[in-house]
Inverse folding.
C-alpha cells in the first residue's frame, strides 16, 4: 500500500473512526447544551447521557449510545493503527515518491493531532461523562 491511494484509504479509515466519535459523543454534548457547563461539572456525573438526546430516541437510542461508548475506545485505537500503518508503508520502501511520502506524512500528522486531543481535558471530561 505504498501509493498515494493507500494513504487516502488509511486517511478514510481514520476519518471514519473520528466521525463516529464526533457523531456519538461530541454532537450530543453540543446538542444538549452541555458545552456551556464547566468541564468539572460535566465529568461529575450530574448529567446522565442515558437521559439525554439521542439515548431517548425510542428503539434507536440504546444502539446509538452503544456506538458512542464503543467509539471512545475504538477511535484512538484505530488512529494508532493507522499511524503505525503509515510508518510501515513508507518505511518499507527505499525511495517513496515525494507525493506519496507527503500523503502518508499528512495522515500521520493528522492522527497525532487527534490523538493529542483525545488526551486533552475536554476529551477526558467527555469520556467521564459518557462512562458515568
Amino acid at each position: 500500500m505504498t501509493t498515494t491511494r493507500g494513504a487516502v484509504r488509511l486517511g478514510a479509515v481514520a476519518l471514519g473512526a473520528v466521525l463516529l466519535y464526533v457523531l456519538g459523543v461530541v454532537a450530543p454534548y453540543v446538542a444538549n447544551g452541555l458545552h456551556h457547563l464547566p468541564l468539572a461539572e460535566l465529568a461529575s456525573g450530574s448529567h446522565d447521557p442515558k437521559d439525554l438526546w439521542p439515548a431517548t430516541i425510542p428503539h434507536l437510542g440504546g444502539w446509538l449510545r452503544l456506538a458512542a461508548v464503543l467509539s471512545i475506545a475504538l477511535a484512538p485505537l484505530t488512529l494508532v493503527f493507522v499511524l503505525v500503518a503509515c510508518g510501515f508503508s513508507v518505511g518499507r520502501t527505499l525511495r517513496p515518491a515525494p507525493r506519496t511520502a507527503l500523503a502518508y506524512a499528512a495522515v500521520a500528522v493528522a492522527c497525532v493531532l487527534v490523538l493529542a486531543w483525545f488526551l486533552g481535558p475536554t476529551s477526558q471530561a467527555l469520556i467521564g461523562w459518557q462512562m458515568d
Observations:
- Residues 4-131 form one domain.
